[in-house]
C-alpha cells in the first residue's frame, strides 16, 4: 500500500455507514447489524458510525452508543469501528467519546466545532482536550463546507504531535495542503470525498472514509487493491467507473444520507427513512441514482 507510516490505524477501506431507522423513525439495530455485516463481507476494513452520513445531528447520545454496541456485536473483530462524537460543545464531545469507548469503539471521529466558528487556537485546544480525555485514538474530521471552520494545515501539524491523534478524514478539497501534511507527519490521511479516493491514496494517504461504499463497497475496495498490486491503469479505470455514481450521490444537490438510503431501500437493504429536517429523495431522483448505480456495477465498469 502507499501509506508510508505504520499500518493504517483503522484499515484502508472505511464506510461512513448510514444509520438504519424503522419506518416509524426509530433506531433499527437489527438492520444496522445486517448492513454492517454485509459491508464488511464485501470489503470494508472499518465502519464509521454516527458521522455526517449517519445523521448524527438527529440521533441521541443513547442511540449512538447503542449503535456502536450493535455493530460491534455484528462484526466482532472483523473490522474497526470509529464512532463519530464531534459536536459544537467540547464537554459533550468528551462525554460522547467516553461513551463510545465503553460501547466498544476502536476510535473516535471528531469534527471541527461548528456554528460558533472558533479561531485556530480554540480549535486546537478543543481537539487536544478530547484526545487528552479519551483512551481511544482520534481521527480529525476537516469538513469546512459544513462546519464553517477549517482545521488549518499548521494546526494539523501541531496536533499530529499528540500521541492519540492519529488520523484525518479530509473533506477540505485542499489537495496541496493534504500532501504537505502527509509528507510532514505520520498521520493516516483518509479521503473523505469519494472523488479523491485514488488521488490521495496515490500520494500516500491511508485509504478512504466513503459514503458511496454503503452501496458499492467491493467496487471501491477494488480501486485500492489494484493500485496496491501495481496495476495503476485498472485502479484508474475503476475509479473513473464510479464517478457517475459518486456525482449522483454526493454532488447532485442531495445529502449523502438521503441518496444512500434511497439506493439501499430500492436494493432491499436496511435503510429506512431519514430524519427531519432531511427529506427522502423523490422518485425521479431515485431513478437517476439507480441508473448511475447500474452503470457503476455493470460488466464494463
UniProtKB/TrEMBL annotation:
It is found in: Cytoplasm. Its EC number is 4.3.3.7. SUPFAM superfamilies: Aldolase. The record marks 52, 115 as: Part of a proton relay during catalysis. It is an enzyme of class 4 (lyase). It comes from the Bacteria. InterPro entries: Aldolase_TIM (IPR013785), DapA (IPR005263), DapA-like (IPR002220), Schiff_base-form_aldolases_AS (IPR020625), Schiff_base-form_aldolases_CS (IPR020624). The active site is at residues 141, 169. Pathway: Amino-acid biosynthesis; L-lysine biosynthesis via DAP pathway; (S)-tetrahydrodipicolinate from L-aspartate: step 3/4. GO terms for molecular function: 4-hydroxy-tetrahydrodipicolinate synthase activity. Pyruvate binds at residues 53, 209. Its main location: cytoplasm. Keywords: Amino-acid biosynthesis, Cytoplasm, Diaminopimelate biosynthesis, Lyase, Lysine biosynthesis, Schiff base. It catalyses: L-aspartate 4-semialdehyde + pyruvate = (2S,4S)-4-hydroxy-2,3,4,5-tetrahydrodipicolinate + H2O + H(+). The keyword S-adenosyl-L-methionine does not apply. Belongs to the DapA family. Catalyzes the condensation of (S)-aspartate-beta-semialdehyde [(S)-ASA] and pyruvate to 4-hydroxy-tetrahydrodipicolinate (HTPA). Homotetramer; dimer of dimers. This is 4-hydroxy-tetrahydrodipicolinate synthase. The lineage of its organism: Bacteria, Bacillati, Actinomycetota, Actinomycetes, Kitasatosporales.
Amino acid at each position: 500500500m502507499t501509506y508510508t507510516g505504520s499500518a493504517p490505524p483503522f484499515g484502508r477501506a472505511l464506510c461512513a455507514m448510514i444509520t438504519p431507522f424503522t419506518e416509524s423513525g426509530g433506531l433499527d439495530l437489527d438492520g444496522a447489524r445486517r448492513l454492517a455485516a454485509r459491508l464488511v463481507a464485501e470489503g470494508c476494513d472499518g465502519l464509521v458510525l454516527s458521522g455526517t452520513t449517519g445523521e448524527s445531528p438527529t440521533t441521541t447520545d443513547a442511540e449512538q452508543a447503542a449503535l456502536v454496541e450493535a455493530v460491534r456485536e455484528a462484526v466482532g473483530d472483523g473490522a474497526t469501528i470509529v464512532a463519530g462524537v464531534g459536536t459544537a460543545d467540547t464537554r459533550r464531545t468528551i462525554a460522547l467519546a467516553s461513551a463510545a469507548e465503553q460501547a466498544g469503539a476502536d476510535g473516535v471521529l471528531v469534527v471541527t466545532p461548528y456554528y460558533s466558528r472558533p479561531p485556530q487556537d480554540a480549535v486546537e485546544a478543543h481537539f487536544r482536550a478530547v484526545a487528552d480525555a479519551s483512551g481511544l485514538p482520534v481521527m480529525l474530521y476537516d469538513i469546512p463546507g459544513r462546519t464553517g471552520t477549517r482545521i488549518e494545515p499548521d494546526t494539523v501539524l501541531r496536533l499530529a504531535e499528540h500521541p492519540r491523534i492519529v488520523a484525518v478524514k479530509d473533506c477540505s478539497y485542499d489537495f496541496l495542503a493534504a500532501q504537505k501534511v502527509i509528507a510532514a507527519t505520520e498521520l493516516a490521511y483518509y479521503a473523505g470525498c469519494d472523488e479523491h479516493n485514488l488521488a490521495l491514496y496515490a500520494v500516500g494517504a491511508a485509504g478512504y472514509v466513503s459514503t458511496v461504499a454503503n452501496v458499492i463497497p467491493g467496487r471501491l475496495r477494488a480501486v485500492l487493491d489494484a493500485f496496491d498490486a501495481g496495476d495503476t491503469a485498472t485502479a484508474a479505470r475503476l475509479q473513473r467507473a464510479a464517478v457517475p455514481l459518486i456525482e449522483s450521490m454526493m454532488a447532485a444537490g442531495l445529502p449523502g444520507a438521503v441518496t444512500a438510503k434511497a439506493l439501499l431501500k430500492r436494493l432491499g437493504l436496511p435503510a429506512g427513512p431519514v430524519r427531519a429536517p432531511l427529506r427522502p429523495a423523490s422518485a425521479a431522483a431515485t431513478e437517476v441514482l439507480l441508473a448511475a448505480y447500474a452503470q457503476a456495477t455493470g460488466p464494463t465498469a
